[in-house]
Amino acid sequence: MSEHRIAFLFPGQGSQSVGMGQELFRTVDAARTLLATASQAADADLETLVTRGPFDALSRTRVLQPAITALNLACLAWLRERGVTPWAVAGHSLGEYAALAAADVVSPADAVRLAAVRGRAMDEAAQQTPGAMIAVVGLDVDTVVAAMADLMPRSEGGVANLNAPDQVVVSGTTGAMDKAAAHFEALGARCVPLAVSGAWHSELMRPAEPILRDALAGLPMAAPARRLYLNVTGAPAPDADAVRDALVSQLRSPVRWVDIVRGLMHDGVDRFVEVGPGKVLRGTLRRIWPDASAYEVHSAGDVASLQRVVDALTA
After folding, report:
1. Which CATH class name applies to 131-197?
2. Dihedrals φ, ψ of 255, to 5°?
3. What dotted CATH number matches 6-126+204-314?
4. What is the pLDDT of residues 22-66, one digit of tens each?
5. Cα separations (Å) of 239 from 87, 246, 310?
6. 70 and 46 in contact (C-beta within 8 Å)?
7. 3-class SS of residue 297
8. Which end of the chain is more exposed for a tag (fewer CB within 10 A), N or C?
9. CA 204, CA 174: separation in Å to the nearest integer?
10. Any residues with CB less than 8 A from the CB of 78 and at least 6 apart, and which?
């Protein structure tokens, strides 16, 4: 395993399903502890929501964010216990909070609590100004970025996620997203509304910033113990202060996922593990770097898939 550079990638909202991680939460002490911490932080019975749903209740931002983070970190704990450790880490949007713990910047429990603060603050901001998000598929990144700058002021909407060379998510007020969809469909793109309750990574999230900033100010943070690639820059974090600033900025800044993946590749990573539910990041990785012979990618969201990762990376 030493000859390979392994990156752990942590998913965010949109990867959830009823029943996710239920075997981990039922049988692994660390997983149960993390879920209990998430339940307390969210003031909700996450064990019931995760194992039995309903899906709509699980998908509420203020409960989903700590729930996903708890599952991501339960998977991380399983891998660490079996000797699989990353050379670098990154998380997509919410997934960045699990990446913090994977880089030993904060404890797993504190990462879950921060995710709960973030989820609650974003939910409140979304209720103040309702918004929407749309995935624009089939146009190159530069075209979408330039068009959004021309179509509307950033206060109404902008680019939220740079997920792949031909997939960009835009975010903003409902009216602005209707305008954007009409424009990009006229250019031949496929526009897919996302099942989210707010305009994440847009100016509409500005009211959430002071809440998260206050929570971060009161939390001890260490310098990353391994490379932690940040959403807002696409590059590794130099120190703890940069991490704090990036987490606040991330609320209304684009997720530079393409830059992160290309940076990891450039720095020699050749083994990727999506640590958490679903396979969303696995799909984006293949869109960014189609040459599958250059790397391996694994998904690890339940006990069986985690064991397969261990077998593959420790052989």
Report:
1. alpha beta
2. -85, 115
3. 3.40.366.10
4. 888 888 888 899 999 999 999 998 888 988 888 888 889 999 999
5. 17, 11, 30
6. yes
7. strand
8. C
9. 11
10. 24, 28, 30, 31, 303, 306
CA atoms lying within 13 Å on the CB side of residue 179: 17
Which residues are part of the catalytic machinery?
93, 201
pLDDT in tens, 148-179: 999 999 999 999 999 999 999 999 999 999 99
**At which residue do the structure tokens 């050379």 appear?**
87
> What is the DSSP pairing of strand 88-91 with strand 157-164?
unpaired
Q: How many CB atoms lie within 10 A of CB 220?
A: 9
Task: List where CATH 3.40.366.10 sits in the chain.
Answer: 6-126+204-314
Q: 171 near 200, Cβ under 8 Å?
A: yes
Helices (H), the chain: 22-27, 29-42, 46-52, 55-58, 61-81, 95-102, 108-128, 141-151, 174-186, 209-217, 240-250, 257-266, 280-288, 303-314
The rounded distance, in Å, linking the Cα atoms of 126 and 122 is 6
Predicted TM-score (pTM) of this structure: 0.94
Return the residue matching tokens 């019975």.
45
